[in-house]
Every structure is written in structure tokens, then in C-alpha cells.
Amino acid sequence: MRLTLEGKAALVTGAGRGIGRAIAAQLASYGASVMLNDLDEGAARETESILRSAGGRAEHLAGDVTAPAFPQQLVDATLQAFGALDIIVNNAGYTWDNVIQKTTDEQFQAMLEIHVVAPFRILRAASAWLRETAKREIAQGRRVMRKVVNVTSIAGTDGNAGQAGYSSGKAAVIGLTKTLAREWGRYNVNVNCVGFGLIETRLIQPLDSQAASIEIQGRQIPVGVQPKVLEAVKSMCPLGRLGTPEEAAGAALFLCSPLSDYVTGEVLICSGGLHLH
Ligand SMILES: NC(=O)c1ccc[n+]([C@@H]2O[C@H](COP(=O)([O-])OP(=O)(O)OC[C@H]3O[C@@H](n4cnc5c(N)ncnc54)[C@H](O)[C@@H]3O)[C@@H](O)[C@H]2O)c1
Q1: 91: CA distance to ligand 1 center in Å?
Q2: pTM
Q3: Catalytic machinery residues
């Protein structure tokens, strides 16, 4: 049987670039309609036009997933656009790194807000529709599987020096995932995490004078990785290289597809075999 996501409606956060864009493109290429969210409106629009020119169905809603009221708006907009919500990928994220003694309260909280609080609010916002819809389907004797994929990192599963906040947020989202897998199994929702090693995106560009930065609530936060760390990682990685966004998206696609209908509460690591412990 050929893999298809025809008739499925998906929501992908942080879909303006990098891994989120690649996940959205793969979902659309298998036939899903995709709501694209990103903080950066221009980037979200660009993803939308890439998906549409490849024949996909896509809409976008720009906005900050950490703004308390926004997750409900995003879920409502997806339901309004497509009449359903079958796949949720909580991908939006960034790093704000430092050793613990240099990590401020604001910095630590920001990492929890983006990596665990925003996914929590999005899933809570979706829960009414997901539960009511599943109850109706079950009463009709139908089993329709739906998918939640939360993005974590080997920094969350293994810990990583210099990332107290990021690692904590990425570990916390695993707890949320495992709990929802238990709460939502009865509604036929598979809830899993995909965890990445080093994937070639803006997030891990070499940190130098031209380093990229992300604007969060008016503050420019440099994102990137020290060039010597990138080299060390390549030599520690069994596959000897960084991953591409498309390879990262492949692991997420498995968890978004019927291939994973009997997988729930798990963490799938896509890191070329790299672990930090
Ligand atoms: N690249 C890696 O090596 C790597 C490794 C492990 C985990 N991850 C995780 O993968 C996910 C995607 O990262 P990426 O590498 O594609 O980074 P990226 O910077 O290329 O893309 C992330 C996107 O998320 C968006 N975003 C950030 N904060 C947002 C917010 N508050 N609301 C809405 N959108 C927001 C950004 O604008 C950006 O377009 C993140 O959760 C990241 O932590 C990445």
C-alpha cells in the first residue's frame, strides 16, 4: 500500500525554515493540507509558496507560539481552514545558550516557554476538538488515528554542557509527550517525540561575527554553534556528518504517518547515531 496523507490536516509550528519547513513540505507532498506557523511572516509565506508551487495545499498564520492567547487562535485557524486537525507538529524552537552561572531567569524561562509551555498550550487548545471527534468516530465503530509529534533534542535526552535552559525545555516536552500518550490513547491519538542531533539549519550555523540571530520580543538572540564543536560532533557521530533538514523530516514523517499507528509515548532519535552521554 502506498503511503498517503490525503485528506489529513496538519499544523506545523516554526515552519518558516529549517526542519519545520522540510516537515511541512513532506507532509504536503504526501497529500496533507498544512497550516504553517512561524514567528517570521515572510518565512512562513515563502514556505507556503514553495509548497503550493509543488502542488500542495497550504495556508499560513504567522505569530509567536509563546504568546498565551495565540495557540488557541492557531488551532482555530487550522480547523477553520481545513475542517479538521489530524497531525500536530510542535517544532518551533531556538537556543539561548549559556553555562548555568551565566543563565538569567529570563533566559531559562524563555527556553521553557518555547519548548514545553507552547506545545502544552497548543495541545490543550486542540484537545476539545480531538476528544469530541474521536468519541463520535468510535461511536460509529470507526478508528481514525491522529498524530502529535513534539520535537526534542539529544540535549534533552542526554544533557549538554552550556544548555541548561534548552536541555530542560527539551527534556520537559518528553514528559508532556509520555503523559499525553497515556491520556489520548483512548482517543486514537499517537503522541511521540522526535529528537534530533545536529541538523544543518540556521540554528547550528557556525557562531562567528556573521552569526544569525532570532528576534524574540524585541531582543536579538544569537543562534549558532562554535565551529570547533561542529567539527568535534562530526568526528563523534557514527555517520560522520551532520544531518539535512530532509533527513530530519523523514523521521518526523514516520511519526505523522500510518506507519506509526501502533507507536506511542516514544522518543525517536534522528542523530546519525550521535549521543552526548
Ligand atoms: N538544527 C538542529 O541541529 C536541531 C537539533 C535538535 C533539535 N532541534 C529542534 O528542531 C526544531 C527546529 O529547529 P531548526 O533547526 O529547524 O531551527 P531554525 O532556526 O532553522 O527554524 C526554527 C523556526 O522556528 C521559528 N520560531 C522560533 N520561535 C518561535 C515562536 N516563538 N513562534 C513561532 N515560531 C518560532 C523560527 O522563526 C524559525 O523559522 C527546534 O525545536 C529545535 O530546537 C534542532
Answers
A1: 6
A2: 0.98
A3: 166
